[in-house]
# Entry
Amino acid sequence: MSKADQHKAEIVDSVVALAKQRLDPAKGGMAERFIRLYFRNVPPHDVLREGTDTLYSVALGLLQFGGERRKGEVKIRIFNPVYDDYGWRSPHTVIEVINDDMPFLVDSVTAALTELGLAVHLVVHPILAVTRDAQGRLTDVQDPAAAPEGAPSESFMHLQIDERTDKATLDRIAATLRGVLTDVRAAVEDWSAAEIALGEHRSLLPTLSRLAAEQPHRERLVGLLMLALHRSGRTVEAATVYGRARQSLAEQYGMNPSAVLDSLHVALLRDETTLGCSVDDWLAGRVTAAADALPTR
# Structure
């Protein structure tokens, strides 16, 4: 360990000690885990240049912002920190984003900010395995590597950009990022479909399983997971995924799955390799009756 890394570790220990001093003991354990995960990949020089109180306020502010979140919700806030409101100050404008973890998030967000003519001065991006109650309240965070299999992961992002104070500008930044994050979800689905077509279905299973569990109403995502499981020789599990999606749609929206997802489910049970059409044909709705034409086994 370098001297800088050692000094960073000592400072993070000081931030944890401050949290334990200031917070109720019932919240201290989660706060410690969050603080250590938050600073884990931050370069030492970005930690060493700030005081313990500032580091505490930055980390705890993001934790509190993520304290309540509905499944699938994108949370964004943009602010200019001042002591009276946030317990710290910065010459930069701060953007915080909490979202389902998925590929391409940081690259997409930073690219969008650059296109708006904004320099990005700092990016902190811990990925956390989270536990939330039925109302979406955060009850625990863990290192995803140590969490139980299938535990939902969320992206907690803290960025600092060129200072902007005009409300219209801040609103435009927020709207742009919401649009970008919506596009990222679609891009992940497109990328997954391409990877499945290339035979990379097994490597996609952890990501698709997590995303489909968090967003069972996204039928294309559910269908991609079903296909990846089927092509991995796990058709029974694909049928289970379909059943969970059907139940979730009924309970949350009073709806049944689309005819496309229904026919995909039937086709996989009868052996999808006989279809003679692409993954996207199924999931874009261009093949709606092919399942009925398959021979019954």
Q: What stands out?
A: The chain has a mean pLDDT of 86. The radius of gyration is 22 Å. The longest strand covers residues 153-161.
